[in-house]
Automatic annotation (TrEMBL):
Domain of life assignment: Bacteria
Annotated signal peptide: none
Name this protein carries in UniProt: Hercynine oxygenase
Key words, A-Z: Iron, Metal-binding, Monooxygenase, Oxidoreductase
Example of a GO MF term: iron ion binding
Catalyzed reactions per annotation: gamma-L-glutamyl-L-cysteine + hercynine + O2 = gamma-L-glutamyl-hercynylcysteine S-oxide + H2O
Similarity section: Belongs to the EgtB family.
Reported cofactor(s): Fe(2+)
Segments forming domain Sulfatase-modifying factor enzyme-like: 174-428
Binding positions (Fe cation): H51, H137, H141
């Protein structure tokens, strides 16, 4: 088999995996639930379904494949910039049957393009890049659909086995000191890295300490019990205004008695599980209460990638190998984060646990381009979100597919958002 055949096969496998996930998330509910808006924060599920097909049509079938449009008439309806999520239910959207048929037609054409296009030579298709972009885009919307499932009321429709439990408990107050020095942040070589992860560049950091594990329910409950939500001094000015206006008193989906509702089931919150569904303001307030701060994005990435033995930045905390089920809680294999210490094989060389998987981790950093950033291939993927007050999240959650998660992968959201699968860890300066 030639190298191109191998790449084609990998792309086909990834396209199929993403599509199976999309359809599983859609088929879990009836048509009424698919078209209904479960929260003004989210699109109706049927919008996400047709939107992934529409982006695949635009980016792959038309741009790369230069094929005739399938449905040019629906482009604006599925353009995320034209219609905020709250307005999407009012659009004359494709109905569930039409949406499924549409994405199947587009996919057939995309597979046709995959067979016909040279995968090297044209910049867009080098290493199958645009196919990788499409796969990651669909998986990102699948995580968004999973977040919609979390907001949905009514009987549970999703199920998954529990994540592995730790063999050896890990102290949830332990920290790891990362020595001062330069490391390579971002990448110029990872084939499917998106434009905002590029280029690789040197960042010099003073020494810092970072939590060995994400902040747990136990630690977060201490903050709540200590009146953390009633003390403006722990909150930023914007954070305090938001906490009052939104009436925040505890993480989203908590009931205040050690239980939370998850995907339609009320469950006990294990004290040593990473806290989930907190916004950036809550994370920053907890850190201030604990006498600490959120790590910067660079600090997160150095903890995750820097190998003290070689000085090199690796792809993941455990090395360069792609994630497996033994490394990290990714890929919606489970519907919750794993307790801290559950992934000893995923630990970084300095001893930091669960940087990848379980919960997205809020960082202190505002989303912006790296030095030398160039748009590729569309301004709309990243650049239009730079310097607008979005905060960076790192590491992926239990709902993030491995194909859309790397040591360099950057996610971003508004500081008020907490329907995403987000938690955090804290850091401090070291003299
Ligand atoms: C990178 C997760 C912030 O979902 O808004 C989806 C990804 N971009 N469609 C998002 C994305 C275009 C994006 N995030
Ligand atoms: Fe999208």
């Amino acid at each position: 088999m030639t190298e191109t055949d191998t790449l084609r096969e990998r792309v086909a496998v990834e396209l199929t995996r993403a599509r199976e996930r999309t359809l599983t998330l859609a088929d879990a509910v009836d048509d009424h639930d698919l078209v209904r808006q479960h929260s003004p924060l989210m699109s109706p599920l049927v919008w996400d379904v047709a939107h992934v097909g529409n982006q695949e049509e635009l980016w792959l079938v038309r741009d790369v494949g230069r094929r005739e449009p399938v449905r040019a008439d629906i482009d604006t309806m599925y353009d995320a910039f034209q219609h905020p999520r709250a307005d999407r239910p009012a659009l004359p959207l494709l109905d569930p049957t039409e949406a499924r048929a549409y994405i199947r037609t587009v996919r057939d054409k995309a597979l046709d393009v995959l067979g016909a296009e040279p995968l090297a030579g044209r910049r867009l298709t080098t290493d199958g890049f645009v196919f990788g972009l499409i796969v990651q885009h669909e998986q990102q919307h699948d995580e968004t659909m999973l977040a919609t499932h979390q907001l949905r009321t009514g009987p549970a429709v999703l199920d998954a086995p529990p994540p592995p439990a730790p063999d050896v408990p890990v102290d949830d107050r332990a920290e790891v000191v990362v020595p001062a020095g330069a490391f390579t942040m971002g990448t110029s070589v990872e084939p499917w890295a998106l434009d905002n992860e590029r280029p690789g560049h040197t960042v010099d950091l003073p020494a810092y300490a970072i939590d060995a594990v994400p902040v747990t329910n136990r630690r977060y409950a201490e903050f709540v019990a200590d009146g953390g939500y009633d003390e403006p001094r722990w909150w930023t000015a914007d954070g305090w205004a938001h906490r009052r206006e939104a009436g925040l008193t505890m993480p989203m989906h908590w009931h205040g008695d050690g239980t939370a509702t998850r995907f339609g089931r009320r469950t006990d919150l294990p004290p040593d599980e990473p806290v989930l569904h907190v916004c950036w303001y809550e994370a920053a307030a907890f850190a201030a209460w604990a006498g600490r701060r959120l790590p910067t994005e660079a600090e997160w990435e150095k903890a995750a990638r820097w190998d003290p033995a070689t000085g090199r930045s690796r792809r993941y905390p455990w090395g360069d190998d792609d994630p497996t089920a033994r490394h990290a809680n990714l890929g919606q294999r489970h519907l919750r984060p794993a307790r801290v210490g559950a992934y000893p094989l995923g630990v970084s060389p300095l001893g930091v646990h669960q940087l990848v998987g379980d919960v997205w981790e809020w960082t202190a950093t505002e989303f912006t381009g790296y030095p030398g950033f160039t748009v590729f291939p569309y301004r709309e993927y990243s650049e239009v979100f730079f310097d607008r007050g979005y905060r960076v999240l790192r590491g992926g959650s239990f709902g993030t597919d491995p194909v859309a998660c790397r040591g360099t992968f950057r996610n971003w959201d508004w500081p008020v958002r907490r329907q995403i699968f987000a938690g955090f860890r804290t850091a401090r300066d070291v003299a």
